[in-house]
Amino acid sequence: MLFSRWVLLALVLCLQSCGSDSASENAAPHKSLAAPTALRSRPAAKTEEITRELKLSSHASLDCSDCHSPDGQRDGGLHDGGTSIGKADCGHCHQKELKAYEQSVHAQAVKLGQHGAANCTYCHGSHSILPAYDPRSQVYRRNLPETCGGCHKNAELAAKLGIRQPKAGLLYLDSLHGKALIENGLLVAPTCTDCHSSTHTIRRAADPLSTVNRNNIPKTCGNCHQGPLDEFAIGIHGKKLAEGNPKAPVCSDCHTAHQIVRPADGFKLASDTLCGKCHADRLHQYRESYHGRASDLGNASVAACFDCHGTHTILPVSDPASSLSVNNRLDTCRKCHTNATSKFTSFRAHADFRDKKHYPILYWAFWIMTGLIAGTFAVWGLHTLLWVARTATVYWRSPADFRRQKRQARDDSQGKLYTRFRPVDRFCHFLIIISFLILVCTGMPLKFHEAHWAKVAFELLGGAHVAAKLHRFGAILSFLYLAIHLTSLVGPVKRRWSSFRDDAGDFRIRRLLGFVFGPDSPLPNWDDVRDVTNHVRWFVGRGPKPSFDRFTYWEKFDYFAELWGSAFIGLSGLVMWFPVQVSRWLPGWVINLAQIIHSQEALLAAGFILTFHFFNSHFRLEKFPLDTVMFSGRITEAELKHERARQYERLIAEGRLHELEVRDDWGSWKYLFTIFGMSALIVGLLLAVGIFVGLGKLWFGH
Known about the structure:
Elements: H1 2-34, H2 44-56, H3 64-67, E1 78-80, E2 83-85, H4 95-101, H5 105-111, H6 120-124, H7 144-152, H8 155-161, H9 168-173, H10 176-183, H11 192-195, H12 217-222, H13 226-234, H14 236-242, H15 251-255, H16 267-276, H17 280-286, H18 290-296, H19 305-309, H20 329-333, H21 360-397, H22 399-410, E3 417-419, H23 423-447, H24 452-461, H25 464-488, H26 490-496, H27 509-517, H28 526-539, H29 553-577, H30 579-582, H31 589-619, H32 629-632, E4 634-636, H33 637-643, H34 645-654, E5 661-662, H35 666-700
Antiparallel strand pairs: 1-2, 3-4, 3-5
């Protein structure tokens, strides 16, 4: 028994001795960290810093020499007298990673001598290397964008190294993926290595083996987005890619490579441009439609390309499974237009009014309206130029007399005042000004949506959604003043109705026609033909200046144009406002026709009023800068004699002049309405400039 106890004690002592030796051997590297030979010649602070970093790193158990093998021929090593420790050699332990790295674009850059190209220490650190799962590691998922961004968001270094996308790092941080990873801390969100290879073999995009090569991008994105990948594969784009078509779009063509956004964060508004990279003709036709114009001005509620054609499973229209096939088209339209009928589907989102063969009605409608615009502007443009030239000649012959005559004619504080317009006419004109400016401010930007001023105008109005509501409010005002005006005509007709019949009760046609087309009517008559002729003769110095009656021929043209425009613009506008209801009785292509008529007629009306009407009523020298007659409804006796001598003489002959004489409180309202009128003129002139700039852009390009 005693012998066995001695044997056991000897065995324990032997094991302790062996364990102590083993522990000493394992602790040897840590002893070198305390005072490595190569570090003794360095400052104490630096030595302590490196020592501390190594103790906290994944390489805490290694000696300096395990990484920095002694080699006096290596440049950049650590020196201590005659002793030299070379650069770190990571491949000694990480042979697999080194072999993968040597196939990468980074290694190729290093071999070419590009100083600053990424190597082991650049990405993983030098002495404070930590495992990739450690949140403090430079290659931790959430830290990778910052690590990679050292080169890929540094414009100066990127230019030096030949990096083609120097802002890739910044774009990623602002993308859906970057925000999910960095701001929200979702580690499942893709980071740099998820797309550019999860190993060390990061290759150029042109390399067929690269995970971001065009042919491999769907598979790379499909690692997270398997559903969209399956849909893409059965769509026409995926099939073309599988067939080897180099022009077939892949994920990054639509969603970009780094600046990926949510569909609700602007992707929809940019989608038409993305699709237009390949389908330029379709994009141009789409932007001629209301959908395209409103989308271009920031309205995300209108239909974009993918709303009709699908997102990833895009199929030809001839395919029965296509969202735009004959059997599925109505369901597609009903996603936005809930109660649409089968007739609605004949609307053409990509109708081209320039294509006479396929869209003859739209073709002729466009060119008829365009011809009407060109003819109107040509005739009235010549008329205005002749008038300006003649007035300038008269003015320069006797400027003092011209100014004196103008001042006397417009001085409403002297002499008598006569009623020119009824209160209801003045109120309607006030509504016309308000509705016209609203409609032009909200409608012309749609017409010239590509112009910069159009986008600025919609931003000032509060966006396309607000502009659409304002436009409809302006339309309601237009219908309101038109209804008020037509109703106001009932009274005069009623009062004169008995005079249109003789004693036998039969109509006196001549008296009726005299009332409808007489001098007090704004409708054209044969006297206007004579007035036009005499006025033109005066323009060219071949006759005296003519006298006019209550309404001049240019005022009658304005009135007739207003009725014409209200009918065409109003009816076509209602078709576009209520397309589903209209398509219950009429085919959907009527909506295409209505858009052309509405757009062209609105351009004609706006262009005419902002130029020729402004000149005829306000900007000719006799009226400049503003004629307030439509606000006051009053005209001075001097102006009545000077400009409407025929009316003045007729009223005297009929003994009715005194009936129109009036004296009221217009003076107290004069300045208020003058400010309003001048403001409306200024806004109108700005709109006129915008319209002509937009026309120049359409006619002459950028």
